[in-house]
Design a protein that fits this description.
Blueprint (H helix, E strand, L loop, with lengths): L3 E4 L6 H10 L12 E5 H10 L3 H12 L5 H13 L8 E5 L5 H12 L7 E6 L2 H14 L8 H21 L4 E5 L4 H16 L2
Parallel strand pairs: 1-3, 1-4, 2-3, 4-5
This protein binds adenosine-5'-diphosphate.
Length: 202
Amino acid sequence: MLNIIILGAPGSGKGTQAKKLIANSEFKQYPSSSGLIHISTGDLLREEMDKNTELGVHITDAMNKGEYVSDAHASQLVMNKTHEYGGYRVDGFVFDGFPRTLPQCLFLDRLLASFQAEVNVVINLDVDNLTLIERLLERGKTSARPEDKNKKIIIQRIKTYYEDIESIHKYWSDIIIDINGNGTPEEVNQRIINALSGESTK
Ligand code: ADP
């Protein structure tokens, strides 16, 4: 399996780049295999939110404040999603928005170990804060996500991100690759593909 984490602040383009990676058939090992599977905790949490359960209310509250949901909830959703693929020939997962804390890193290692797999590479998308804020405000004009419309919440989300990020970078320091996340989605995708092919020829 090829398991990739895409790390980056809100607005850094994690989701966009994850979608481009899973669309790339180069990562398919066998005609009958699935290719890479995209796991976005943001998407999983929004699905849960729409169900209006008690957990849904907790998630809405955290998101609206620009804070994280609990590690246990985020981890549980990721575990459920990976287990949906039990028995299939999965070429690997692209994790987008997970892990965001150290306990989530430890959880992911244990989860992948249960599939005799591991995290192979961490792509760190580097984008300066002003560009992040501009991108999120732009996204807020057309998206249904209320947390993209409010500058105060956007700034709080970026702050929340920086609280844990140092320990996460340290945790994955052996396999992390810094990618310049400025530019068009295609340019950034090309940088990632180049970096990944460099990795496979190491
Ligand atoms: P962004 O990267 O723009 O913040 P996401 O869709 O990835 O967007 O996440 C939206 C929100 O969902 C986050 O601000 C946070 O509240 C919550 N969230 C997403 N992933 C996690 C996670 N791994 N742990 C805790 N909370 C999370």
